[in-house]
Design goal:
The chain has 4 helices and 7 strands. It is of the alpha+beta class. A hairpin with a 2-residue loop joins strand 2 and strand 3.
Length: about 150
């Protein structure tokens, strides 16, 4: 598969392929289904979301809360389909997302929250410089990185 990773707007023509992406069964409690996330995005003024593609193949989904007037940027959803995990697509997508947030007004920090424990994404986020803040939000560990 093409290793050229891009973040693409989800359209009427592509939303079904994004909805079909799924994490492993043991990860289902860690991230909301893409259908839920896209529905949420349409009712949240600050949502910016994209499909993650390797070449022309959809491999994942991400969404941030983007509030430039408050300089608040929060990685709200991030998933790579079970078939494409451990294939470097997640790393490339995160790099593209961080690059995008750096272009936003007053962007100095990017936040994320995640479930801790076995199978959680803590190690993945730490590799990008996310450090736990010590706060727990909705039962999830809150972490931030300096941009």
């Amino acid at each position: 598969m093409d290793s050229n990773v891009t973040l693409r707007e989800i359209t009427r023509a592509t939303f079904r392929e994004i909805l079909s992406l799924k994490v492993r069964p043991d990860q289902e409690q860690l991230v909301a289904p893409n259908a839920w996330s896209i529905a949420e995005a349409y009712f949240a003024e600050d949502a910016w979301f994209r499909g993650i593609y390797a070449g022309d193949t959809p491999v994942g989904f991400l969404m941030i809360s983007d509030i430039p007037e408050k300089a608040e940027y929060f990685l709200w959803r991030f998933m790579i389909d079970a078939r494409y995990q451990k294939s470097d697509y997640g790393r490339r997508a995160m790099e593209l997302l961080i690059d995008h947030v750096r272009t936003r007004s007053n962007a100095e920090e990017l936040y994320v929250s995640y479930h801790g424990g076995e199978g959680g994404p803590a190690g993945f986020y730490r590799r990008f410089g996310f450090e736990p803040t010590g706060d727990i939000e909705g039962g999830e560990i809150l972490a931030k990185m300096k941009l």
